[in-house]
Recover the amino acids of this structure.
């Protein structure tokens, strides 16, 4: 392989790995950290519900769905920038 292809592969993997790590940190935050502090969050109200309850019942799921769409868009951009995108 030539040097340009190797550089693109290394750049693609570096950016993909960093994106994955960031998304795992965000996922961990909404899956565990928010729920660990549910009692403290229940002192705050959001749309008439305690925030701890809201995050456990709907908020974390909403965050996961948004995170999924953002991740797909960012990964597609990385793929296009590095020349490995699938054809539309």
């Amino acid at each position: 392989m030539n040097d340009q292809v190797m550089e693109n592969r290394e750049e693609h993997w570096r950016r993909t790995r960093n994106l994955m790590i960031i998304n795992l940190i965000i996922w961990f935050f909404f899956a565990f950290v928010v729920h660990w502090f549910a009692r403290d969050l229940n002192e705050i109200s959001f749309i008439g519900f305690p925030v701890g309850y809201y995050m456990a019942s709907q908020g974390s799921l909403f965050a996961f769905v948004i995170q999924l769409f953002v991740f797909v868009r960012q990964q597609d951009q990385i793929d296009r920038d590095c020349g490995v995108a699938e054809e539309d």
